[in-house]
Design goal:
It is a single chain. The protein is elongated, with a radius of gyration of 20 Å. 61% of the residues lie in helices and 0% in strands. 0% of the residues are buried. The protein has one domain.
């Protein structure tokens, strides 16, 4: 994997630091997260979401409370 150096302003560096999920997260990981968040959903994902919405509307789901009760989790 190659690497390169980029210049960013101190303001941008501060913003990237705010976006870190943990202190040792690299700027590359932060940038990849931003890119992933801005990508368009795939057509398959859109279809899966629509199917899930229909199942929910039809009552075909189990709540977290029901699962906890079923498996004895508090």
């Amino acid at each position: 994997m190659g690497s390169t150096t980029i210049q960013i302003s101190s303001d941008l560096k501060k913003e990237l630091n705010k976006m870190k999920l943990f202190s040792r997260e690299t700027y590359e990981e932060v940038i990849w997260s931003i890119i992933e968040d801005t990508k368009e959903l795939s057509e398959q994902t859109k279809k899966d979401i629509e199917i899930s919405r229909k199942e929910i509307a039809e009552g075909k789901f189990v709540t977290l409370a029901e699962l906890k009760k079923k498996y004895g989790v508090k």
